[in-house]
Write a sequence for this structure.
């Protein structure tokens, strides 16, 4: 629960959250050198501050078994990413990168928890984590707005940061003018982050309502920026965020009995839609953005379907039932050996791992964030209320399911679930030290 008195925001932590979660690299320095330096520094910091990790694990109490089980499953699946290609003779080790990404994201999240534990004056580490992540996301969305308004700055920025070769093609496509931020091209993963920020903002708003605190506009502002970011980076995130807001509104109405706030959130969505309709007339960039972002709603108004050209193609070409042997045990391929594209030409999040090592291993992968989120949603002794965390964990699970129909987000969900789980169980007496 947030403290009754107003807490000052640590600007240094905001900037740290911004860079760790939305990392950009210099074009002039070899990218792998920057990777090693960046993650090496964070890993070294965690090692030097290992006493904090010991306190966190001790604070889990009987629930620490959840951490050990999930880390054991993660290690087992990591081993399978090597063993399965060898067993099938495919020698396709491209799935190893997924687990390296999970480890890297987890290092970043744990590093931020340590920094927040030491430098934030918030009583609850979880609420501080949510707060700083939401503010950082808002700043990233603001960078996209600035680049859309000032294209000269965007061109300058893109000339000095590293861009993956697969993203350079979008630089010359005017349709993607509003999909650039500090990281460069921003798409599926960035819209997942914006949806996560939306969930965290909603959770903090619910915390304020339940604890009858003075309402702060900060989390309403971060909520708005999260929705705008989704409208920029990915329609799947926009639809998921709207669904999360509606679910939160029902919770506010039926659990907390706050009809006025339900009306407020409904009006907020309508105002954002109207505002977007007006912004489109500012210039051609915003007009193209509006037509792209609002395509599901425009389609719904015309023929009653929320489909888009992209979603219709995915449903018709990328959804299929594999052969029984492949479904249960996989083929040992994550990438097509001839084209380098997705194996069997599907990018659907829950299908690709099945094609690699089968449905049983895939189910174990989903079990990791589920176990951690369920653990975090249980009664938390160091807070007077855990309603906001229970809502957050449910919406995070909903978000994972929603996004996995589009692409792979398990690499992100595991790291966030781990961070929420560790932060939720830190004892209050330990949180006061730092």
């Amino acid at each position: 629960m947030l403290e009754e008195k107003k807490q000052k925001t640590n600007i240094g932590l905001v900037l740290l959250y911004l860079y760790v979660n939305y990392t950009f690299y210099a074009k002039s320095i070899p990218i792998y050198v920057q990777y090693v330096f960046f993650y090496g520094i964070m890993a070294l910091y965690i090692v030097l501050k290992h006493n904090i990790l010991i306190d966190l694990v001790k604070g889990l109490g009987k629930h620490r078994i959840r951490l050990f089980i999930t880390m054991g499953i993660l290690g087992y699946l990591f081993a399978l990413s090597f063993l399965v290609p060898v067993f099938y003779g495919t020698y396709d080790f491209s799935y190893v990168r997924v687990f390296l990404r999970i480890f890297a994201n987890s290092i970043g999240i744990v590093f931020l928890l340590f920094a927040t534990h030491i430098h934030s004056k918030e009583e609850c580490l979880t609420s501080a984590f949510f707060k700083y992540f939401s503010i950082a996301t808002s700043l990233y969305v603001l960078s996209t707005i600035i680049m859309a308004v000032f294209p000269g700055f965007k061109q300058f920025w893109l000339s000095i940061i590293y861009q993956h070769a697969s993203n350079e093609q979008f630089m010359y496509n005017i349709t993607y003018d509003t999909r650039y931020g500090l990281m460069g091209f921003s798409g599926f993963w960035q819209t997942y982050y914006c949806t996560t920020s939306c969930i965290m903002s909603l959770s903090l708003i619910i915390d304020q309502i339940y604890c009858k605190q003075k309402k702060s506009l900060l989390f309403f502002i971060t909520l708005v920026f999260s929705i705008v970011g989704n409208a920029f980076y990915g329609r799947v995130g926009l639809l998921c965020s709207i669904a999360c807001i509606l679910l939160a509104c029902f919770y506010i109405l039926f659990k907390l009995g706050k009809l006025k706030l339900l009306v407020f959130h409904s009006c907020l969505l309508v105002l954002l839609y109207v505002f977007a309709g007006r912004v489109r007339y500012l210039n051609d960039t915003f007009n193209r953005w509006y037509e792209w972002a609002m395509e599901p709603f425009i389609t719904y108004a015309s023929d009653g379907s929320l489909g888009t050209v992209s979603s219709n193609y995915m449903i018709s070409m990328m959804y299929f039932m594999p052969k029984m042997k492949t479904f249960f045990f996989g083929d040992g391929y994550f990438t097509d050996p001839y084209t380098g594209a997705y194996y069997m030409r599907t990018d659907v999040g829950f299908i690709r791992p099945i094609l690699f090592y089968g449905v049983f291993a895939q189910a174990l992968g989903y079990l990791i964030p589920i176990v951690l989120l369920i653990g975090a949603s249980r009664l938390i002794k160091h807070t007077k209320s855990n309603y906001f965390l229970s809502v957050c964990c449910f919406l995070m699970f909903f978000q994972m399911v929603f996004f996995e129909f589009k692409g792979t987000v398990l690499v992100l969900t595991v790291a966030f679930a781990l961070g929420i789980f560790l932060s939720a169980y830190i004892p209050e007496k330990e949180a006061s030290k730092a």
Notes: The radius of gyration is 22 Å. Residues 1-5, 381-385, 430-434 have pLDDT under 50 and may be disordered.
